[in-house]
Each structure stands twice: as structure tokens, then as C-alpha cells.
# Entry
Amino acid sequence: MYKVAAIGDRDSIYGFAAVGIDIFPADSPTQAGKTIRNLAESEYAVIYITEELAIQLENELDAFRDCPVPIIVPIPGLSGNTGMGMRSVSKSVERAVGSDIISDWD
# Structure
């Protein structure tokens, strides 16, 4: 059975443990990168990562974009929402559908 994980600074991900998500505190991109690789090789299908770390690991996370699992989802941390998570979801939907159906229509 697949598992769900959250990676980021302890204060940003601590609440995920209350709903049964495994948490992996990581304060540095190096530590987070190692953790993601280890989780990707095990039973984790969904990995939430704070946007702050995801921005620093963007090139490394690109390697997982075409893989069915794990799905890596950027989430806002304590520093606030940078919009990276929504951009990531929008790009994935655009690739799947062939058109940007999420972004604002101005």
C-alpha cells in the first residue's frame, strides 16, 4: 500500500502528522534532496514539500515529473504562499489536457 509524506521545516509540516501523513523535517536542500530520493525508491506515492525547499530543488524535482509515482506537490510553508504550488498543478494539467484550463482568464 502506498504512503504519503511531507518534507519541509518542522513547523510547516508538523500538522500533517495529525492526519497520518509521515513527516520528514528538512531544513536544507541537501537533506531534502536525499530524503526525496529515498522516499521515491520506497512506498511513497505522494510527497508534499514546502515551496521554499521546492524552489531550491526545482531541477532535481523535474526528474520526477514524468514518473507516475511519486507525485511531488509543493505546499506553502510558514514563510507564506509563493504561488509555486498552483503553477506546478497548472503545468501538470496543461500537459495532461493540452490546454491551460486553470489560470485566470484576463
About this structure: The radius of gyration is 14 Å. The chain has one domain: 3-97.
